[in-house]
Amino acid sequence: MTTSPILANKGDKFVELADLALVPTPAPTDTWRPVSHFDVVQAVKSAIQTRGFTIATERFGLARDGQKMFGVLTLGLTGHPDWTYCVGIRNSHDQSFAAGICCGVSVLVCSNLCFGGEHVLKRRHTSGIDLSEMAQDASRYLGEGFVGLEERLEDLRDRPVKSEDEARCLVVKAAEYGAIPSCDILPVFNEYRHPRHAEFNSRTRWSLLNAFTEIAHKYPPSRHDACHRRITRLFGLGGQPAVL
Q1: Residue 39: which H helix or E strand, with range?
Q2: In total, how many domains does the chain have?
Q3: Residue 125 — pLDDT band, cuts 50, 70, 90?
């Protein structure tokens, strides 16, 4: 696992699973019961494995000095020629967002990540949170979520980008939406025009999506997470109408 070359905030870095166990969990209050990052990941992994999936790779990131955790578990090959399933995990110790998971795919040729929808199940850190129950309930929805995401990705493959001017416009709009910083408008556009992987030479929205996710490889955990969540909305991967 390699630490990102761009560290936007102190403590914003990619880490190993064992490092999550070293992050202290804040003391609970009467209305707020924070949960260990490590315990969240372990509960999700156990639920996934109980449903018959194997975990091929795992990657984790911390932000805000360990207050926020992001993770991606890539599952065993699913038989699709172009991607395999993965699961995104989030947790926070600063009440900024709920613990939750979402379905996604990892593109085989480049490990680019595409996620579908909001987190399929999430729980606020209240006194009633049950990690095992949350993870088991969420895992039941993953199969349906994977199918829906694959259908939307196949649709993007069939949707042409009519011209380079249209591609420019879409990339700028994505920056306006906050999916990428303005300094990456040209890198994303150039990746679309001259993709480093021949599989994305077609002039479609699928190729444009992969231009965004290719550039996102360099982002630190918090920016990486924000990019993917906004790209999900922009390309309509969550089942709602696309913004772009």
Answers
A1: helix 37-50
A2: 2
A3: low
